[in-house]
């Protein structure tokens, strides 16, 4: 599935500001506690803390902020799959893939 249907304008100043905030939050006790739990926000699997990344649930390129309510520990696989999608777009993408898979099964 192509992600070309998502059109948005990036604000370089917003992105730089929020990345700086994220760097500071990575040093915080709160973030270290999140990593210590070792659970990916998206797939729910357990990982060593060093294998988890900081994910912006609403991506900063889409206007998201580097605040505790918008940050989640995420495995690298889920983070790469998510890219710059919002939670709603992830659900739509999965729904579209599921429906596409069902159509393929009935065609054979």
In short:
The chain is mainly alpha-helical and 108 residues long. The protein is built from four helices and two strands; from the N terminus they run H-H-E-E-H-H. It has helices at 12-26, 29-37, 76-82, 87-107, and strands spanning 52-56, 71-75.
Characterise this structure.
The structure is a single chain. Mean pLDDT is 87; it is low at 103-108. The chain has a single domain, classed as DNA Binding (I), subunit A. 48% of the residues lie in helices and 9% in strands. The chain is mostly helical and 108 residues long. The longest helix has 21 residues, at 87-107. It is flat. It contains four helices and two strands; from the N terminus they run ααββαα. Strands 1-2 form a two-stranded antiparallel sheet.
Secondary-structure blueprint of this entry?
Elements: H1 12-26, H2 29-37, E1 52-56, E2 71-75, H3 76-82, H4 87-107
Antiparallel strand pairs: 1-2
């Amino acid at each position: 599935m192509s992600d070309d249907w998502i059109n948005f304008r990036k604000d370089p100043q917003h992105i730089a500001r929020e990345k700086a905030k994220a760097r500071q939050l990575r040093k915080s006790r709160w973030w270290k506690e999140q990593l210590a739990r070792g659970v990916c926000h998206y797939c729910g699997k357990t990982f060593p803390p060093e294998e988890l990344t900081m994910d912006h649930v609403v991506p900063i390129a889409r206007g998201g902020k580097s605040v505790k309510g918008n940050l989640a520990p995420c495995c690298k696989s889920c983070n790469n799959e998510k890219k710059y999608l919002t939670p709603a777009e992830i659900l739509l993408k999965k729904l579209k893939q599921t429906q596409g898979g069902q159509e393929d099964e009935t065609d054979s």
